[in-house]
Amino acid sequence: MAARALCSVDFEVFGKVQGTHTGINAEKHRLVGWVMNTQHNTVVGQLQGEVGSVSRMKKWLKHTGSPKSRIDRCEFKNEKTISKVEFRNFSIRK
Fold this sequence. Notes:
This protein has 94 residues and is α+β, with helices and mostly antiparallel strands. The protein is 24% helix and 46% strand. Strands 4-1-3-2-5 form a five-stranded mixed sheet, with helices on one face. The chain is globular and about 35 Å long. The N and C termini lie far apart (39 Å).
């Protein structure tokens, strides 16, 4: 069986957002990485996992977010193909 393609992407979400819900949804999609609320009222983080799962999570970050969120915009950068994930799970950093 062929290995599935993996990727990594950094993100920042602007608006009324919470990192906790991002972590819950990332785990639901079997992604690893981290998320953190910033002093600038944004959420930053990194996602790693199968390309399709990362793509679905990017769409969620950009258009849906947590139930009480208001997403003004979402930026993605440093997207790249990886040979293996660098994290064991998805964590919420403080």
